[in-house]
């Protein structure tokens, strides 16, 4: 799917904006904007799409995306609770390039692939980060810069294999949104390429080229990663058997499910559940 351009209304009087999001679902589709962005997840679990990356998200994550990097968070459907996040966005070029800020600009350049920070190292910074949406003027400017300097000294990992630094044509936005929504609704059954191609009014061959160009891999490789991430989440959030989870994530062959899970997650489903389930409350 192609991302849509999200207009963020900043001008000469305001170059930084921050807000707290709290609704049943994260509603923003796969999108990009010319501003840099820091997002902290407070509540809900689900899947994050950063550039060509697809993977699970959980509370406590802090992610930095550079301008023009497509991204979105899709929460799992939940009966209780909300999807909550704190977001700060700022224009490029508001900080002067001086030697003292070299680590900050290195971090922002790396964020063209999206970066996720080490939770333990950023934990002492989250309280001050959550206060940013309440600030204005020079206080907001100084506090944000101070935070970025501290973050540049924290451990972080890149997410997307591909860097996104240029504007992406906005006419592809609806296509990618439809594809993401379709996968999120139908990943639990067999999906045919002709369905996706028809959904976005393309031939199967054109769709395959389009998707591979956007996401850096064929559609079914992406779908497999999505399913495995959903399975990993279900292993931690439910008491369902591993075979139930495999079938409910769209796998018709359990041996294939086991192989793909180990290839992507680095361990068998059973080992993964034993290793990580104690870290989560159901």
Automatic annotation (TrEMBL):
Residues 177-275 form the HTH araC/xylS-type domain. It comes from the Bacteria. The keyword Transcription applies. SMART domains: HTH_ARAC. One of its GO terms (molecular function) is DNA-binding transcription factor activity. The keyword DNA-binding applies. Keywords: DNA-binding, Transcription, Transcription regulation. InterPro entries: Cupin_2, Homeodomain-like_sf, HTH_AraC, HTH_AraC-typ_CS, RmlC-like_jellyroll, RmlC_Cupin_sf. Pfam families: Cupin_2, HTH_18. PANTHER family: ARAC-FAMILY TRANSCRIPTIONAL REGULATOR (PTHR43280), TRANSCRIPTIONAL REGULATOR MTLR (PTHR43280:SF27). This is AraC family transcriptional regulator. It comes from Ulvibacterium marinum.
């Amino acid at each position: 799917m192609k991302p849509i351009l999200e207009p963020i209304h900043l001008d000469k009087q305001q170059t930084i904006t921050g807000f707290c999001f709290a609704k049943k679902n994260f509603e923003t589709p796969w999108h990009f904007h010319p501003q840099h962005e820091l997002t902290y997840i407070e509540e809900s679990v689900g899947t994050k799409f950063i550039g060509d990356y697809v993977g699970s998200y959980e509370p406590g994550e802090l992610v930095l995306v550079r301008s023009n990097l497509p991204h979105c968070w899709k929460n799992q459907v939940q009966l209780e609770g909300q999807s909550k996040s704190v977001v700060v966005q700022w224009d490029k070029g508001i900080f002067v390039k001086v030697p003292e800020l070299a680590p900050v600009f290195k971090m922002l350049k790396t964020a063209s692939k999206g970066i996720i920070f080490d939770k333990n190292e950023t934990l002492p910074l989250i309280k001050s980060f959550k206060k940013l949406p309440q600030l204005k003027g020079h206080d907001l400017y100084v506090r944000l810069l101070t935070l970025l300097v501290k973050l540049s000294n924290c451990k972080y990992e890149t997410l997307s294999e591909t860097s996104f630094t240029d504007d992406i044509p906005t006419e592809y936005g609806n296509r990618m949104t439809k594809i993401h929504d379709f996968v999120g609704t139908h990943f639990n059954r067999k999906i045919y390429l002709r369905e996706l191609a028809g959904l976005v009014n393309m031939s199967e061959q054109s769709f395959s080229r389009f998707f591979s160009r956007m996401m850096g891999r064929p559609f079914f490789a992406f779908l497999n990663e999505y399913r495995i991430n959903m399975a990993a989440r279900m292993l931690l959030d439910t008491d369902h058997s591993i075979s139930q989870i495999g079938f409910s994530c769209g796998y018709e062959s359990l041996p294939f499910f086991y192989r793909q899970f180990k290839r992507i997650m680095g361990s068998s489903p059973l080992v993964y559940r034993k290793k990580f389930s104690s870290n989560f409350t159901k």
